[in-house]
Design goal:
Helix content is 82%, strand content 0%. With 392 residues, it is an all-alpha fold.
Length: 392
């Protein structure tokens, strides 16, 4: 009983961070899978890839100098700064129509959101310092985010179908306001992490010299490239090439995202208590790769088949996501800002790499072959996973 009480007190301290994650994720994921379709109204496919790249380059530059920024300001100040920037971006997308506002608003959105999640990472890692339950804690954090991921495609595609793209962004704007309220109430009560005097060069050296850190970075990068291609090109592929309506895509994406809610907590618990991360990660890459290959090979428009294959692709991705998160955060702490920021570089980096991979393929062979390339890339994730020294 005493152990249970201590456990409840331990998780109680993390509730504000879980709440902020949940609320901000709803705002962000509400428009994540419709961004490329919205941009398609004003920009070519090549230009859309470039816009993702521009936003990611900004984020990448800030990540590189993260600890220098943190030593001159607080993590909470960074969080609030980019939350304001995110709000400006969503206002531009909500209330101002046109090519310029859609492009600039999207770039700001693409640049600021990963940095907000990064600040949340640091607060959570500070609370989690010294814990033996990293997999479970991280899986709960991801699940708080992924519950919103699951319902957001249905809501956003319904808003777009019934009203407009601008209405979906307007709802996203309204939903960011509670994030400000909860943040002002709770963040001041959290312990401000102290940053270590290390540099981006030191972080690069750590990842290059420590085999397991390098391999978990590589595995995470493969996963993020998988996400980036799925986010940028698959909605366009399903809508313009296969011929699904936005409403049908909303249904498929809701089914597709169920595994993140259903499986990440069990996978995190299994990794902590029994298997470690390695075996689950390898299985995840294998399942995701074969599912994407099946999407490429299946020739007909069939809602059930596409939904099933997309669901399976995310069963694999959920296994990879929680195990890469759990493995990495078992090896670091909340004060190692540059180490965490270097690991998080995989997100913006993937949005730079994805167009470099996809655009030549689309130009030479057509959009379906992006799925074939993605299947091959995802299968390569097994290589660093196999070479990891497991935590169990």
């Amino acid at each position: 009983m005493e152990t249970l009480v201590r456990g409840l007190r331990y998780y109680k301290n993390m509730i504000p961070v879980y709440g902020i994650t949940f609320l901000f994720s709803f705002h962000y994921f509400l428009v994540l899978f419709v961004n490329s379709s919205n941009l398609e109204r004003y920009w070519s496919e090549t230009a859309i890839g470039n816009l993702y790249t521009y936003g990611s380059v900004i984020t990448l530059a800030i990540f590189v100098f993260a600890s220098k920024i943190m030593r001159k300001t607080k993590v909470s100040h960074l969080f609030y700064s980019f939350l304001v920037l995110e709000t400006i971006a969503i206002i531009m997308l909500s209330f101002i129509k046109g090519q310029f506002s859609s492009g600039v608003g999207f770039i700001l959105l693409q640049a600021s959101a990963p940095l907000i999640f990064f600040a949340i990472d640091i607060f959570m890692q500070e609370l989690n310092k010294g814990s033996k339950h990293t997999g479970n804690i991280r899986s709960l954090l991801l699940t708080a985010s992924n519950i919103t991921v699951m319902v957001s495609p249905l809501i956003s595609t319904w808003l777009i179908t019934k009203y407009s793209f601008e209405m979906a962004y307007a709802v996203s704007f309204i939903s960011i306001l509670p994030v400000f309220i909860l943040s002002f109430i709770s963040i001041k009560k959290l312990k401000e992490p102290k940053t270590e005097e290390i540099s981006a060069v030191h972080a690069l050296r750590v990842f290059s010299m420590k085999n397991d850190m390098r391999r978990i970075f590589e595995a995470n990068l493969v996963l993020k490239i998988f996400y980036a291609i799925m986010i940028i090109y698959v909605p366009i592929y399903l809508h313009t090439y296969v011929g699904f309506s936005l409403k049908e895509i909303g249904i498929m994406f809701t089914v597709m995202l169920l595994p993140f809610v259903l499986f990440e907590i069990p996978f995190g618990t299994i990794a902590d208590k029994w298997l470690g991360e390695k075996e689950i990660m390898i299985a995840g890459f294998f399942i995701s790769s074969l599912s994407v290959l099946a999407l490429f090979l299946y020739p007909e428009k069939n809602l059930f088949v596409f939904s099933t294959l997309l669901f399976l692709s995310r069963v694999g991705a959920s296994a990879i996501e929680i195990t890469t998160e759990s493995y990495f955060f078992k090896k670091t702490n909340g004060e190692e800002i540059d180490i965490i920021s270097f690991f998080r570089i995989t997100n913006p980096l993937s949005f730079i790499i994805a167009p470099i991979i996809a655009l030549p393929i689309i130009s030479n062979w057509g959009e379906p072959y992006v799925l074939l390339a993605l299947s091959i890339i995802t299968m390569f994730g097994i290589v660093p996973a196999l070479l990891l020294k497991d935590t169990k």
